[in-house]
Protein: HD domain-containing protein
Amino acid sequence: MKAIKDSVHDHIPVCDLAADLLDTPELQRLRHIKQLSTVRLVYPSANHTRFEHSLGVYYLAREACSLLGVEGDRAKAVRAAALLHDVGHGPYGHQTEGVIERRLGRHHDEVGDLLASGELGAVLESHGLDPGEVADLVAGEGRLGQLVAGELDVDRMDYLVRDAHHTGVPYGTIDHSRLLAALQFRDDDLVLSAGNVQTAEGTLVARALMNATVYRHHVSRIAGAMLERASERLLDSTDLRPEAFARMTDDRLLGALRDCPATADAARRLEQRDLYKRAVWAKLDAVPEAVVAADRDEVRAFEREIAETADAAGETDVSPEDVLVDTPGEPGMPESSTRVVVDGEVRRLADESPLVEGLRAAGRAQWRLGVYAPEEKIPEVGAAAERVLGVET
Amino acid sequence: MKAIKDSVHDHIPVCDLAADLLDTPELQRLRHIKQLSTVRLVYPSANHTRFEHSLGVYYLAREACSLLGVEGDRAKAVRAAALLHDVGHGPYGHQTEGVIERRLGRHHDEVGDLLASGELGAVLESHGLDPGEVADLVAGEGRLGQLVAGELDVDRMDYLVRDAHHTGVPYGTIDHSRLLAALQFRDDDLVLSAGNVQTAEGTLVARALMNATVYRHHVSRIAGAMLERASERLLDSTDLRPEAFARMTDDRLLGALRDCPATADAARRLEQRDLYKRAVWAKLDAVPEAVVAADRDEVRAFEREIAETADAAGETDVSPEDVLVDTPGEPGMPESSTRVVVDGEVRRLADESPLVEGLRAAGRAQWRLGVYAPEEKIPEVGAAAERVLGVET
Amino acid sequence: MKAIKDSVHDHIPVCDLAADLLDTPELQRLRHIKQLSTVRLVYPSANHTRFEHSLGVYYLAREACSLLGVEGDRAKAVRAAALLHDVGHGPYGHQTEGVIERRLGRHHDEVGDLLASGELGAVLESHGLDPGEVADLVAGEGRLGQLVAGELDVDRMDYLVRDAHHTGVPYGTIDHSRLLAALQFRDDDLVLSAGNVQTAEGTLVARALMNATVYRHHVSRIAGAMLERASERLLDSTDLRPEAFARMTDDRLLGALRDCPATADAARRLEQRDLYKRAVWAKLDAVPEAVVAADRDEVRAFEREIAETADAAGETDVSPEDVLVDTPGEPGMPESSTRVVVDGEVRRLADESPLVEGLRAAGRAQWRLGVYAPEEKIPEVGAAAERVLGVET
Amino acid sequence: MKAIKDSVHDHIPVCDLAADLLDTPELQRLRHIKQLSTVRLVYPSANHTRFEHSLGVYYLAREACSLLGVEGDRAKAVRAAALLHDVGHGPYGHQTEGVIERRLGRHHDEVGDLLASGELGAVLESHGLDPGEVADLVAGEGRLGQLVAGELDVDRMDYLVRDAHHTGVPYGTIDHSRLLAALQFRDDDLVLSAGNVQTAEGTLVARALMNATVYRHHVSRIAGAMLERASERLLDSTDLRPEAFARMTDDRLLGALRDCPATADAARRLEQRDLYKRAVWAKLDAVPEAVVAADRDEVRAFEREIAETADAAGETDVSPEDVLVDTPGEPGMPESSTRVVVDGEVRRLADESPLVEGLRAAGRAQWRLGVYAPEEKIPEVGAAAERVLGVET
Structure:
């Protein structure tokens, strides 16, 4: 069997189905989408791509099927879904997710059309697989779908370890081989076998620490916010169709931003890491409820009002493009609903482990509202933002 | 400068002082004391010794002094204390700590006499160091003592990473280089600089997960309890002096246990991993308060009573040697009092991070009372123990 | 001091000079140039960039200076040169080196102009450094230049370890901390101290195995050859100036290739890994001397003649663009001239170690002439190439 | 399935047969025999045991069988042989091999009697295995025996990687997953599949570098020589039977050496690393052929003559116990006879790769005759040894 060398899982044997899928443009495209998008502006080694991550997820799915006794066409479908689980991502992964959802009304794991058409569809069918069934697995549907997208999925097992390996931050090093070996089905639920409360806690904690240290680092958040707004402007000021936007790679998007006058400065700033800085960085209890819960249109209105206020106040010109308001949702904890066998019964981790509540509280304590602006306009924008948003200081 | 290769820190440069200290019998003895004593019966790769750990602590102390600008004789004293911090340990480290404290009234970090006499004293003095001052640093006293023994000490930074490396359990991989770089003195307190709440949380979590998965694994606890009781019996039935006992190595103690008729069976069981099994394994809320809080004499009385009850009940002979009652204290969390600079002020991690309470609760949820017995006597001993101790089932 | 997390060296402290240099567009550009260019088509994890490598080289230079007692402005100049040693690289690093040398007559380590102008020059001067002197160090000139570019340079120490980390191939894991500690100056020569013949052999061997397994993998060679020819065609068919070409990033070059009709197909093939295949793959002793030694114009003539012959022979159309002849030079072994102290004298490794000759012979045994073509034209091109080039079969 | 955590292979699933074998005293004994015996006096982290190594070999054998399609009872026998391949070792592994062979005429891989008797025999038979057949596999006999003991065996794959992990020396990190995947049978020969000349070279080189840096380090050689002579004296001066000696553990032997007056000093020296030093350290071409080829009795005669000469010469008393002459054989290169498929034919690596001869020459260049003595007697012993042995200086 063919094999591919991987820096995380070492030697990944590649079945014929996977070899054929890997040759499609849809999967090759993932070579050009970075797993952690703007995080690499903070952790310069974090240049790994969704292509290698997809291979890793395929590998773990293969192991999981083997350990769970899933065989034949069902195992083939799971392997295909694992390999393909990220083909629906837009350029820069999660950073353009909001833009794409608003314009196309489609989430990145809705891949039915993509899998049914083109080379992907042809390859799946030539191996006797129904693209629709594979798409359902990608969306986490059904018994086996839990392996691909669920609180115990192989996607998470791969990315935590891989992101740790490539950033150099040790917190993501979960015990994925133990997790795999502990998987079992109880009726139709994927659960961890007895004696694995700590295994589950370990994963939960890894994710929480990676959130705080890596995924939500303020430099990455700033770059991500800049990228999202530039993407919106690009779509508003050119005839680029959202469908085409969604199928771009990282570098094609960067190229398009460079070529469009309305976004050329943002492109230069992203390329040269000459980013906006924080004008406001406020904790949850300092921010009015209405701001925390603001939807996108309200956020834009805040930005305009802050810009006007700042522009009126000082000698510096401040335009709406100079102000970015960034209100993150609360960090999710899908792992908290992991089910573990305890004393013979299936229980939710959140009911079993007092750590879950502790981590949730820690997540809230780390929450920050950010308002970003060009470095030279920080004083004006900061003062205006505090006033407009009603942030306590 | 001489250097020693280490599997964790790679290349450890060794100064003249350290080279001379390493040649003393007191430090060479640590080659024969395993860092994790009975844990290796669960994690077979965990054969690392207090010798290599001491080298690692020396290395980190050296780095810390350099980053903190501690120089000259004060740095030399810190390096010496780091290298010597474990010379006071008895055979099998923490497993014989209770025995030694009861017989000698001395804790393993009280090393004043040891450092003032013999080759150690001579080496320290020949390098212009006062053994008493070094002993104070080992005991964590004074400003610089915090680096050697305190909630931010280099001892912990080394052992968490080293224990992870050698067990294969990933949870101990803390970000020790970031911790080192974040150390600073505020007045006379060793604290973490601003922006390091998560760094501190990472260490806290690492320790909690290592407690649950490694340090308090039931197989290691059983072997540890067997070893402790055998050590008591050895001291009771031979003329071995406690002072000599405390200076033994792991293998000398095992040899002595083999040679003494009262402990030969325990020695064989430990050597061949033919251990007692769990007759009772009960959660905190199932155990009467009086049992949880029982002191050593009360525990012994429980053991005798359980043995008598079991012996009376059935056809199997049960003697007091067949019953071990093991009531651990609550896991400590020294890291929770770590001080971190937040918004310009020094704060205790426990006041800043909701994680601390979550971990404390998780520690309580993992607490177990153990009663152990030879495999063939489990039914009788289990039933008797539940009755005698009043454990709910 | 600021610090950057690195997946290889962990925690890299960044001095003020380095922080300022890192903010220049010239260094930020290296974020967009992959260290191993087309190798990632074989080893999908190998996406690391010349930016993180430059940081690693800076880190090792800093350590080396400290161990060698190089201080003050001289150390600053070495650190600057280490950080800047790759700013002269064109897009895709070594793969466009030939193109750039032919068009501009300049090698990538001739960076005098680059360092003297723009933001780089300003930063260097503001820190009291002479750009010309730094450029000399980059070129390996002078006593300290050996640390930056020489047979014992920190560049090689970093890339062997980094390439191993990111490809997952273990062969590059040299003992770089021992190498650093063994560096010393004898008169003006940088040498390894006594007892380090095997340390030097280890590096030599690592490089030889990485050559065979990674750097000269046939898939990377094919992609590299395609890229080079496409770059030539791009420069020939557009008004892109060679100076501008040389300052592109990987993705800007790929974008330019996509936009130019003469190279659009090559761009698509590179992006989707739909590469040419091997029509001929011949050992050294099967290839006539004149072919091995052919210069670039002769190679092009061979390609045209092969295309004509193949086109004439069969039903398939074969144009000159369909044929790539790839004759690599013999793999270099700069490490073989490493000087090591043996019995008190400085000796060349090649004179001391019989391994050098063994590795050289192994390198010759691995040498291959490649002729590449689109998959469907392999039979015609292969037959024609063997005839035209006189390759034995 | 039960699983054991390993620091090298992570998660090792343990079949019922293995679980039963692991519970026997014969396998538990390997917990008390260090893999690298006296090497840990140089590399303090190298405390790993033959127990964990045996588990690693079992794991790789399991993988190899699965990849080669070996199933059922034949696979069970291979797994048993892999797990048991080291049970025949004496205390301190290879360091007492000579003593045991001379006294018992038996090599450590002749384990027929051991496997047929006691608990081992009972367990093997209870799982339907013939102890004699398993013993044959341990000795490398038959087609499948090549997997257990041969130039491509899983023993070597494990120990090179494990020794690298625990010493911290990177040279042993071979690509074992690629090796495993490349294994195939051609007729009855175990060979590497096409495209793996470099994979084989990598292993060969790893072993050669580990020989030079780790296995044959002079400090380990000195301690090994001291241990061997002390073992001989122990057997000569007590009624310890060779059969009992051969079944000791490391610490039981050390205890016996301590308790015997004739060896107590050697025991103390080994325990406290207060070793003999080098009085002579001579290259191959400086040593007369007769000395290189001397058998054990001749070596002993040399030692006595050197002691007499030294004793007569000076004021220092020199007794035969003070002189150790150590003439190692040439380092073996079993990997050089590895067979690899090249151009469709099976070829020996030594015929295919010029590296083999280079490594052989490097091995000869590293060969050293050692004469060791207590530090204070070095001058007399050195001078006498050069005279008696005719070593050029």
Notes: The CA atoms of residues 124 and 130 of chain B lie 7 Å apart. The two ends of chain B are 62 Å apart (CA to CA). Chain B has a mean pLDDT of 94.
